[in-house]
């Protein structure tokens, strides 16, 4: 690619679709309401010589399978190149299947391959110092896809992104949400949604959060009849204006289409091209009585807003309980306590007593998660043994926690085993993880092993509503022990067909492959238990109806049924892969990879490279699917003079850290002074710098030596490798003077020091400042900096090395330790008898510290945290003999076997 079109940055990660396309120098926009009928003036849609000629979303839904194509064309009318951004947020559950760019007369097509191969190519380039543009982010429900390109003067660029998903029915409807944010007026803007449902459409609606009722009525066209529904949103430029005389756009928010289908039959079977889809959502069933236990984390970390929102949600949920329901509450901190110790009926008197209990309890202690869960399970098990009438009730266990197990049984594998053996497949467990500072994967595996699911509750103003929305989905069980059965000799490759419970407003969906010549004998039987009775039904394929459907929808129906099966199969295999290890996990990975490549889906095991496109460093960019709670952003921008870490506050000119050979500097704020010591060890030794046993967070550093030394000369050592880990969230960051590797054990990405990047994962923010430093921020608990030291390339002695600095540690736990971590706590010392030392330029003194009397020397060390090239001198008292007497124990106590 020539200089007129160079890629700068690519990809990110969230339940909807965001559209953003803008000239990068476009001014910030003020959002305003529309007057609808006021006369609007003709405006120039060009911003800095660039205008968006068209931005169109085409969505075709066939039997819940949604196929989206987003197409946009940008024109540069300027006489010089301009940079534009194409931004799309797609559903987190969706898979990208195609992407193409045409710019300056050249076409670039996405090429999907296995992730290992793609990242090996990227790593090879990264190690050589090159930089591929990459942006990935995972938010609440969305994945964000972003690409910036330069387009030549008097030229145009066209973008086309394709992605696919299966729509899940929640609370009586299917949702298609498109988040719209073009950031400037678009000459031809269009959202076109075409829905085809063989069962017939029972309702359809569309609305936009950014439109007044009057303007919505003018611009949104919606209709449905029989099997077909259609929504069209095509505002004129005038209707896009935020005010009659404005050149800014009001298109900024959610465009949402909701619909449902007829439920005239107990179940519906769709067959096309030897694949079938079975949709089961019977109506007019009686709500079953439910037995529900809420297990609530009240440990110290829940204090404040989280506990307030939890109580608000519990009070609201108690208000929704039915008189025939039974319930109890279990609280766990350091200790476990239950409200009643057994299930009680949801009478008004019991509900009021429960409300009073919720209002009174407060946070305390650590996190005995295992004890709390086992107490809740015991209560449900005891109630289920009370008689035959209980067998026709739906039992549910719901746990809410924001932390890690720190009391009682803390080994996660043992907890999983304990919960599995206690539940014994009798009822589902739903886990709600509050915030980012927890092992959500652990909660997710536990739920999946026990017929439930896990949901992250985001720490935000609407957390109470998030909890309520979850409860609403499981509040009305209609059937239990649901099994959809098919003749074994007719089908293969069946998706999940056994479900512990079926809830009102939801839908059970099964897909599979029908053996050749077996369509005539294919049928489905459903067995379950409902309120006071057994539920049985048989579903047959209406072959004549299938022929009519194929005539109406043709190839799209055949293609969508097969891809629906592939989509469901991959999602289920990914979920199962989370719960296994070793050979079984490898086998599942191979199966997922093969299906992802066969059906051309970007999944967690595949990546898309842009064939033929090169960034400014000459690499093909990678399009990836980021993990939950994770963000990567790379750009070619030069680093700013200050650290760009989010939420970073300028700290006092005091330093705690370790640098050069390795010299440790400890700032003691109580004394407004500093202490220093060296650690003399052999190259290859790994030292513990920071270790917080309460959270598991750690920083370890490995020593390297000079390339060469003279005989008899002391060998200088430096930190050449740092490992920063937070096992609670699976976060691992390995830093060397050459590369920065995130989650390397899982095949994660590698960045070079030539990158300017921000990486986010579960509350941890890593900022790479190009060729200078790296800042790690721990969810407002602590901030650390790694400084890169480059030596003269021709040096035959020294190697490149790293410095490590503590910028903030005020919220690390009281048990934090390590060569640096032990000094995060108040330290007292007294200095006396200051006198000239053996070196007349330095003073010696007597120091009393930690009940030791030491001889110390006043000296100077260098702080490179603000000026990596020259450093700033720091005056300190130097403690001899590897810090003996100052550090706890001997320095050899801090040697650890592994970087993580």
Unreliable parts: 1-38, 123-137, 632-653
How many runs of DSSP E, i.e. beta strands? 52
Reported CATH architecture of the largest domain: Sandwich
- Provide the helix percentage: 10-25%
Number of domains: 4
CATH topology of the largest domain: Immunoglobulin-like
End-to-end C-alpha gap: 41 Å
Short description:
The protein has 900 residues and is α+β, with helices and mostly antiparallel strands.
Describe the protein's topology:
Layout lengths: L6 E4 L6 E7 L26 E13 L2 E12 L5 E10 L3 E9 L2 E9 H13 L7 E3 L4 E10 L3 E12 L7 E7 L5 E11 L4 E8 L4 H7 E6 L2 E6 L3 H4 L12 E9 L5 E6 L2 E6 L9 E8 L7 H16 L5 E7 L3 E3 L5 E2 L2 H13 L8 H16 L9 E8 L10 H12 L5 E6 L5 H10 L4 E4 L5 H12 L2 E9 L5 E2 L5 E6 L4 E7 L8 E8 L2 E8 L2 H11 L1 H23 L4 H17 L7 E6 L10 E2 L6 E6 L20 E4 L3 E6 L4 E6 L7 E6 L6 E8 L11 E10 L4 E5 L3 E4 L7 E3 L3 E6 L2 E6 L3 E6 L4 E7 L11 E8 L20 E8 L6 E7 L2 E12 L8 E8 H4 L17
Parallel strand pairs: 2-11, 3-12, 19-20, 19-23, 23-24, 24-25, 37-52
Antiparallel strand pairs: 1-9, 2-5, 3-4, 4-10, 5-9, 6-7, 6-10, 7-32, 8-34, 11-16, 12-15, 13-16, 14-15, 17-18, 18-29, 20-21, 20-22, 26-28, 26-30, 27-29, 30-31, 32-33, 34-44, 35-36, 35-48, 36-37, 38-39, 39-40, 40-41, 41-42, 42-43, 44-45, 45-46, 46-47, 47-48, 49-50, 50-51, 51-52
């Amino acid at each position: 690619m020539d200089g007129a079109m160079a890629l700068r940055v690519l990809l990110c990660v969230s339940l909807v679709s965001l559209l953003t396309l803008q000239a990068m120098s476009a001014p910030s926009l003020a959002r305003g309401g529309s007057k609808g009928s006021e006369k609007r003036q003709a405006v120039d849609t060009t911003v800095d010589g660039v205008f968006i000629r068209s931005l169109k979303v085409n969505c075709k839904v066939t039997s819940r399978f949604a196929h989206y194509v987003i197409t946009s064309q940008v024109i540069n009318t300027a006489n010089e190149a301009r940079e534009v951004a194409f931004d799309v947020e797609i559903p987190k559950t969706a898979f990208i299947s195609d992407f193409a760019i045409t710019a300056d007369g050249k076409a670039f097509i996405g090429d999907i391959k296995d992730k290992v191969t793609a990242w090996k190519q990227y790593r090879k380039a990264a190690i050589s110092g090159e930089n591929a543009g990459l942006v990935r982010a995972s938010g609440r429900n969305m994945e964000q896809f972003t690409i910036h390109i330069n387009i030549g003067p008097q030229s145009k660029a066209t973008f086309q992104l394709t992605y696919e998903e299966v729509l899940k029915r929640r609370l009586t409807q299917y949702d298609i949400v498109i988040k719209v944010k073009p950031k400037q007026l678009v000459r031809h803007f269009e959202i076109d949604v075409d829905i085809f449902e063989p069962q017939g459409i029972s309702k359809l609606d569309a609305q936009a959060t950014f439109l007044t009722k009057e303007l919505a009525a003018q611009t949104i066209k919606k209709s449905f009849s029989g099997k077909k529904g259609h929504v069209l949103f095509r505002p004129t430029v005038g209707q896009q204006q935020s005010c009659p005389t404005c050149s800014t756009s009001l298109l900024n928010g959610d465009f949402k289409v909701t619909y449902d289908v007829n439920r005239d039959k107990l179940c519906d079977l769709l067959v096309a091209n030897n694949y079938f889809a079975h949709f089961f959502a019977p109506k007019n069933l009686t709500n079953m009585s439910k037995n529900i236990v809420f297990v609530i984390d009240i440990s110290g970390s829940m204090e404040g807003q989280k506990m307030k929102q939890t109580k608000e949600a519990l009070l609201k949920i108690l208000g929704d309980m039915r008189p025939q329901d039974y319930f109890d509450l279990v609280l766990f901190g350091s200790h476990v306590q239950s409200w009643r110790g057994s299930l009680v009926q949801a009478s008004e008197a019991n509900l009021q007593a429960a409300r009073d209990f919720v209002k009174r309890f407060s946070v305390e202690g650590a996190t005995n998660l295992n004890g709390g869960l086992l107490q809740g399970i015991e209560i449900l098990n005891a109630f289920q043994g009370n008689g035959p009438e209980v067998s026709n009730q739906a039992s549910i266990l719901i746990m809410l926690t924001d932390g890690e197990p720190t009391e009682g049984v803390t080994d996660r594998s043992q907890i999983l085993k304990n919960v599995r053996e206690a539940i014994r497949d009798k009822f589902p467990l739903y886990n709600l993880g509050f915030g980012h500072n927890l092992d959500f994967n652990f909660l997710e595996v536990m739920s999946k092993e026990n017929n439930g699911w896990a949901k992250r509750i985001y720490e935000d103003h609407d957390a109470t509503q998030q909890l309520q929305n979850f409860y609403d989905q499981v509040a009305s069980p209609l059937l239990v022990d649901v099994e959809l059965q098919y003749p074994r000799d007719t089908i293969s490759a069946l998706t999940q067909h056994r479900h512990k419970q079926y809830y009102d407003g939801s839908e059970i969906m099964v897909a599979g492959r029908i053996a050749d010549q077996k369509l005539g004998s294919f049928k489905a039987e459903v067995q379950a238990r409902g309120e006071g009775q057994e539920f049985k039904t048989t579903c047959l394929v209406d072959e004549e109806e299938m022929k009519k459907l194929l005539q109406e929808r043709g190839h799209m129906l055949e293609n969508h049924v097969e891809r629906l099966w592939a989509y469901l199969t991959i999602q289920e295999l990914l979920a199962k892969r989370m719960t296994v290890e070793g050979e079984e996990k490898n086998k599942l990975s191979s199966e997922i990879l093969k299906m992802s490549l066969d059906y051309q889906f970007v999944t967690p095991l595949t990546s898309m490279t842009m064939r033929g496109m090169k960034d400014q460093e000459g690499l093909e960019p990678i399009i990836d699917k980021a993990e939950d709670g994770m963000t990567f952003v790379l750009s070619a921008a030069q680093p700013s003079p200050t650290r760009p870490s989010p939420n970073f506050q300028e700290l006092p000119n005091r330093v705690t850290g370790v640098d050069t050979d390795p010299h440790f500097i400890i700032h003691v704020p109580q004394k407004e002074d500093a202490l220093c010591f060296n650690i003399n060890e052999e190259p290859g030794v790994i030292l513990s710098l920071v270790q917080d046993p309460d959270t598991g967070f750690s920083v370890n550093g490995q020593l390297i030596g000079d390339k060469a030394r003279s005989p008899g000369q002391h060998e200088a050592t430096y930190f050449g490798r740092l490992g920063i880990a937070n096992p609670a969230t699976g976060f691992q960051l390995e830093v060397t003077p050459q590369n920065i590797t995130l989650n390397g054990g899982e095949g994660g990405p590698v960045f070079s020091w030539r990158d300017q990047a921000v990486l986010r994962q579960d509350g941890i923010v890593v900022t790479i400042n190009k060729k200078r430093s790296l800042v790690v921020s721990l969810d407002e608990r602590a901030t650390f900096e790694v400084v890169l030291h480059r030596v003269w390339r021709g040096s035959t002695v020294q190697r490149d090395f790293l410095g490590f600095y503590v910028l903030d540690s005020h919220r690390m736990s009281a048990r934090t330790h390590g060569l640096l971590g032990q000094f995060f706590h108040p330290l007292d010392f007294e200095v006396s008898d200051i006198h000239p030392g053996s070196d007349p330029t330095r003073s010696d003194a007597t120091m009393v510290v930690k009940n030791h009397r030491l001889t110390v020397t006043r000296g100077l060390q260098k702080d490179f945290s603000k000026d990596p090239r020259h450093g700033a001198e720091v005056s300190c008292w130097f403690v001899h003999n590897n810090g003996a007497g100052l550090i706890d124990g001997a320095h050899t106590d801090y040697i650890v076997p592994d970087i993580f």
